[in-house]
Amino acid sequence: MRGIRFTDINDPTYSRHTADDWGLVMALKVIGTPSIKTKTIELADRDGVLDFTTALRGVPSYGTRELSFTFEYLDSPAEWSALITEIQGFLHGRRLMIQEPDDDEYYYLGRVTVGDPSGGLVKEFTVTVNADTWKYKNGAITSVTWPLTAGGSIALANDWRPVCPIITTTGAVTFEFGGKLYSIAGAGEFRFPTIMLTHGVNTIKVVSGVGDITFTYQEGAI
Q1: Could you give the C-alpha distances from 54 to 36, 132, 196, in angstroms and in order?
Q2: Pick from 173, 180, 185, 179: which is nearest to 215 by CA?
Q3: Which pTM value belongs to this model?
């Protein structure tokens, strides 16, 4: 049956499917688009406005997004009280991973609120989620390892979400990204705020090094 799966991202065993586990029918689904954080300045002696929305990062920043799912319960009224108590206990106030059937390549992550159930023969209630800006790619986090002795260029493919990768090295390395040189003196885990992977293929050019270098990052989209 079609429905939504809610899962604790840190504990995959804490998981329920609204149709398979609770017998709910999804009557309405709204996947909100995050708002754009705009910054403009209006000058009296200038037409239009000055737009500084992308001045700091070169790309827009966004707010959170709201997801909304309305469910109906059509089964035994005698079981309703126990069921809604379980649903509220499992979902209400928790930060969970949300997987919906029409977009199985991604998942959402956010704080869940269970709305007041309506009375009557058909029991209906709405679950809302104050979700992160980005929907995240399902499956393993992207990880690319490269032997530094090979030199050459490392191609890092990335989805739409700009992301600063975790860089792990087993030895000293110097590499180039975006026309700038970066040097790491030895093994360890590092992050450089100025290394921001954008949509498409990002190229890292190895200048010198020993051992391996690994780039790890979570891909996502609006």
Answers
A1: 11, 20, 14
A2: 173
A3: 0.90
